[in-house]
Fold:
Amino acid sequence: MLNTFLKMEELRNPIILTCITLYMLLCLGIGIWALRKTKSAHDFFMAGKELGIWVTAFAVFSTTLSGFGFVGGPGLVYSMGMSSFWMAIIAVLGFSLSFMLLGKRLRLFAELGDFFSLPDVVYKRYGNNETRLLIALAIILGVLGYLATQVLAMSIVLKDILNAGGYFGDMSLEMCLIISCSILVFYSVTGGIIASVYTDMIQGGVMVIAALLVFITVVYSFDGGLMEMNEIIYEDDPQAIGPWGTLGMFGCLSWMLLFGLGGSGQPHVITKMMMNKKISDAKHILPVSILGYLFSALLWIGIGLAMRALVINGAHPPLESPDQAASQFLQYYAHPILAGIVFAGLFAAIMSTADAFLNIGTAAVMHDIPKYFGKKIKNELLTARITTFLLTVVASVFALYSGDLIAILGAFGWGTFAAAIVPVVTIGFNWKRATAKAANIAILSSLVINFTFKMLKWTLPYNIDVGAFALIVSMILFILVTLLSKPPKLDPAVEKVMDM
Structure:
């Protein structure tokens, strides 16, 4: 038994690379299969509105975690202690609000026309072309931040794996990014959203089981388990293991607002509510998504704490970047086969999530914006694939030169979506009094705040998240402008849906 274990340790890197290669081939196979099922732009963007309960449920929670949760999450815990614990836990509230307020409503709106995207439905609700344009711009800008998160996560993990084996010399981050994007573009261009959701279903199941096994590995990394880890971190920095971590109370509370209420403003999640086969499926999709998310989030918290404790007590050298926490723990402390499976599932999660963002971003670029100008793209499917490639290139440049941690990039994208979409969709689709003017002002204010602070590198006192601040401002403006405006006259079909 000992000889077998030692032999596997010697072959650790080849085992990990083999698992990743096999899994990636499976994902590429799904992309090719999806290519055969993708006959039109409607299939490319909306999966034909034919998704079942399990496919939709796994797609929802897998898309939420992916590179943001599995790479960025442990990095935040490693650098800030327990601060991001609130970000991970409160996301369950975001799932619940999304399904309670929008699950049935969005699916009913999707029946009112041959819609490709969220801006299509927003236009139907408000009857205003400027609102369609502004929500499309918000989605494109948010996609660049969140897509950059996925691309950077995939590149960092790939760099760690390839350099650990020593087979390819010292691979640069730029080269790993080119490799990652090449695979991603092929996968996304071939299958569209169909490839994404079916990959989500497979890797979501894998990640739930793998996260539990990794958490057990984390616990047994120290003789005293979690108690010993906590004691090591406490002796080094009591604040890190406290309830608010090193970010502080106000920073954590702002994250709770952003990832709780803001969870209902994530287009990669709520658009999937327009794709399920039956309207009544929403009540079954929610509990499955929440359970899958909670189990998978164990990896987020566990690895971050373990790596911080291992570095503090000298068992592991300090990390060059907090974003290496997950890949370093899996490479050196998890069983080789488990590490290979988790890495493989992680790459699949990143690809399917990136595909989801490319999908909604592409729809905004080549479907929603042309509609505002009264133009129609002739070959929508071909144009969608070209646009997918171009968005990947732009997001890759953003990822390389932003200088942010993965989770911070993800929080920026999340905040951009939340501040623009929560007032207009979450509130506006449940409040018939809401006006297009209020929606336009809310979106504009959210974009101005988020991007002014980002470009000028401004910060708020007490580590308050800019996205949370933008969300509060946009909601207040949305409500005030609506109350000061004349009640709108709704399309009879829209009014009927909102009365259901």
